[in-house]
């Protein structure tokens, strides 16, 4: 039973991080209508900027996270302005290749600045809490708490504020949004900023129990793609549900099947699902 | 006339390639060129499905790895001769391509790319984790060099270079035949529009699948050559960054042209060789280059040049009305 609960905890940890990354990806997809392969590099950039702020400048963990969120939001907005905006009328293939260009640039840039070594990010939350026979690492609880707080805040922002509503409107129908006077440029920049900040914060949450390295975004972003395909491209609740599904599948798969193959589980799930339902689990139909 | 110039151009390139070992300063240059040729074969394959048929396959390096590991495993663990294993490499990749294609090609546009990205990851992870078959992270060492054929011995670099060149020429010739045929036009029709192609009576799935399988066949073959040339394999060869490399070669030269991917696959590695600083951090430069290319030169070097030629030819065929002609001259001056 404890082992089962331990896996639930692991599933929630992974699911929380994946949801945050997938949320940003799905919001940007709504605006671009193209998968942003650079999103994984945004995640990586978040971890590195926090690592720099915490380990090199000696700031505390939360300032590191804030710094990472701001830095990545900036990188994200810059790439929208410099790359995706000029390409908005180009075929989808060009968007994808351009996003790969950004990904390669950021990864090589991080490697040039900080080298190819693995780094460990410090966290003040190293305690182990015990609850009955269950041991709960504080950082994991922090991840779960922070991830779900962010998800709820984002959901409130999107549904309760006018600015949030403009994002949703533009994701649903670009022309319609323009017709009712929504400033597409402003919304696109805002969306990229939010997506970047979420990816940055997810990285700072997860990095202390993992490591910081230049290709750390690869698996996370690929899984985020699986998640948003599962949840329906562009759907916010879908990204949250998809994140939890993949998080739990991985935690339980690692435990009951094999740790070696846990990373394959998400992809195998995608292959299986797309073979049966090419449009994704909760897709609102093709666009 | 146009046919003549293009034939002259290709012959010139071939002569240059044949003379290269006598001009190259050392074996290292031969190695760089041979590896570039091997990647050129794979890139030419990627260009068929992505450039001509319009489906961006992100698992291409995975299929190259399948071909390479086919040769590695069969020769090292089962003692098969290189040539027999090599002959199988393309077919094993193509056979897996049939299954992947059947599922993935039902998906359109970026869904196809995301799916193949995941397939590429599965291939990479399987190679890394399935130790009993692939030797895991240790990799496969001691892959034999291609056995001599009659008087031809492939143990020294120059002979290996010619062997690889031979396959590159054959690949280009076959690709030329494919894209100039009705089949090639079918692929291009699909690239331009699924619906239009369907309205023309083109069976979408069958043709996409054919394009995909042919494309990964080239990748498998290139992988087989790679195994025989480098003679060491690790899971890294399946990494998606190699697909990104090939995408860049394809785009620099000109996507959807025959010459473009070839020039990109040879030119870009040489550029990185000469700018030694770039070796490790090449993507700090090439990442933005890729972005600038898709924004400002989406047809690459060859594609842009060909479009200009075509426009010139069109202008020559239909003489411009006199009212516009003078202003045109001003532009030229």
UniProtKB/TrEMBL annotation, chain A:
Single biological process term from Gene Ontology: amino acid transport
Keyword Calcium: no
Gene Ontology cellular component terms for the protein in this record: plasma membrane
Matching Pfam families: BPD_transp_2
InterPro entries the record matches: ABC_transp_permease (IPR001851), BCAA_transport_permease (IPR052157)
Protein location: Cell membrane
Signal sequence bounds: none
Single GO MF annotation: transmembrane transporter activity
Alphabetically ordered keywords of this record: Amino-acid transport, Cell membrane, Membrane, Transmembrane, Transmembrane helix, Transport
Domain of life of the organism encoding this protein: Bacteria
Residue intervals passing through the bilayer: 12-32, 61-84, 96-116, 136-158, 179-205, 238-258, 264-283
Topological type in the membrane: Multi-pass membrane protein
Family (UniProt): Belongs to the binding-protein-dependent transport system permease family. LivHM subfamily.
Name of this protein: Branched-chain amino acid ABC transporter permease
Source organism of the structure: Pseudoduganella plicata
UniProtKB/TrEMBL annotation, chain B:
Alphabetical keyword list: Cell membrane, Membrane, Transmembrane, Transmembrane helix
Superkingdom of origin organism: Bacteria
Subcellular location(s) of the protein: Cell membrane
Principal localisation: membrane
An annotated Gene Ontology molecular function: branched-chain amino acid transmembrane transporter activity
Membrane topology reported for the UniProt record: Multi-pass membrane protein
Protein name in UniProt: Branched-chain amino acid ABC transporter permease
GO CC terms, sorted: plasma membrane
Organism for this UniProt entry: Pseudoduganella plicata
CDD domains cross-referenced by the UniProt entry: TM_PBP1_LivM_like
Database matches in PANTHER family: HIGH-AFFINITY BRANCHED-CHAIN AMINO ACID TRANSPORT PROTEIN BRAE, HIGH-AFFINITY BRANCHED-CHAIN AMINO ACID TRANSPORT SYSTEM PERMEASE
Transmembrane segments: 29-49, 56-76, 82-103, 110-127, 161-179, 209-229, 249-271, 283-302
């Amino acid at each position: 039973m404890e082992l089962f609960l331990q896996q639930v905890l692991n599933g929630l940890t992974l699911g929380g991080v994946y949801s945050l990354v997938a949320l940003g990806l799905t919001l940007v997809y709504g605006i671009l209508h193209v998968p942003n392969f650079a999103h994984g590099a945004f995640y990586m950039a978040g971890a590195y900027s926090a690592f720099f702020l915490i380990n090199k400048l000696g700031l505390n963990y939360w300032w590191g996270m804030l710094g990472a969120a701001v830095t990545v939001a900036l990188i994200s907005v810059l790439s929208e302005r410099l790359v995706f905006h000029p390409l908005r009328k180009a075929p989808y293939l060009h968007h994808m290749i351009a996003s790969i260009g950004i990904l390669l640039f950021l990864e090589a840039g991080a490697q040039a600045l900080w080298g190819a070594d693995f780094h460990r990010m410090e966290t003040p939350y190293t305690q182990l809490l015990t609850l009955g026979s269950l041991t709960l690492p504080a950082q994991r609880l922090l991840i779960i708490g922070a991830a779900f707080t962010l998800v709820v805040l984002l959901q409130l922002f999107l549904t309760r504020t006018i600015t949030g509503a403009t994002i949703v409107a533009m994701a649903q129908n670009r022309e319609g949004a323009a017709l009712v006077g929504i400033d597409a440029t402003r919304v696109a920049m805002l969306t990229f900023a939010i997506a970047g900040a979420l990816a940055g914060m997810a990285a700072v949450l997860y990095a202390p129990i993992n490591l910081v390295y230049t290709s750390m975004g690869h698996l996370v972003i690929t899984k985020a793609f699986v998640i948003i395909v599962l949840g329906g491209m562009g759907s916010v609740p879908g990204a949250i549900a998809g994140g939890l599904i993949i998080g739990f599948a991985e935690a339980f798969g690692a435990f009951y099947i094999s740790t070696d193959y846990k990373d394959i589980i998400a992809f195998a799930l995608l292959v299986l699902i797309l073979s049966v339902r090419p449009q994704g689990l909760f897709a609102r139909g093709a666009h | 006339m146009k046919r003549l110039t293009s034939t002259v151009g290709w012959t010139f390139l071939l002569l240059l390639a044949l003379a290269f070992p006598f001009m190259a300063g050392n074996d290292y240059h031969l190695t760089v060129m041979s590896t570039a040729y091997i990647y050129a074969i794979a890139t030419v394959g990627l260009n068929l499905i992505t450039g001509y048929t319009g489906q961006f396959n992100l698992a291409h390096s995975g299929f190259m790895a399948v071909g390479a590991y086919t040769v590695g495993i069969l020769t090292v663990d089962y003692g098969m001769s290189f040539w027999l294993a090599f002959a199988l490499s393309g077919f094993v990749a193509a056979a897996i391509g049939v299954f992947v294609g059947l599922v993935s090609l039902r998906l359109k546009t970026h869904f196809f790319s995301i799916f193949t990205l995941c397939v590429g990851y599965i291939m990479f992870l399987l190679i890394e984790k399935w130790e009993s078959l692939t030797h895991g992270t240790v990799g496969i060492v001691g892959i034999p060099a291609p056995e001599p054929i009659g008087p031809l011995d492939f143990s020294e670099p120059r002979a290996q270079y010619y062997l690889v060149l031979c396959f590159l020429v054959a690949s280009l010739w076959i690709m030329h035949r494919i894209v100039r045929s009705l089949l090639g036009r079918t692929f291009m029709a699909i690239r331009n529009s699924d619906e239009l192609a369907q309205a023309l009576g083109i069976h979408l799935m069958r043709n996409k699948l054919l394009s995909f399988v042919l494309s990964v066949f080239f990748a498998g073959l290139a992988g087989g050559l790679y195994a025989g040339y480098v003679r060491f394999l690790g899971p890294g060869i399946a990494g998606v960054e190699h697909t990104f490399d090939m995408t860049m070669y394809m785009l620099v030269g000109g996507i959807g042209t025959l010459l473009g991917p070839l020039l990109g696959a040879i030119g870009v590695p040489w550029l990185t060789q000469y700018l030694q600083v770039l070796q490790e951090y090449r993507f700090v430069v090439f990442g933005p280059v890729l972005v600038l290319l898709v924004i400002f030169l989406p047809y690459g070097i060859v594609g842009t040049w060909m479009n200009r030629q075509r426009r010139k030819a069109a202008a020559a065929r239909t003489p411009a009305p006199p009212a516009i002609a003078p202003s045109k001259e001003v532009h030229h001056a």
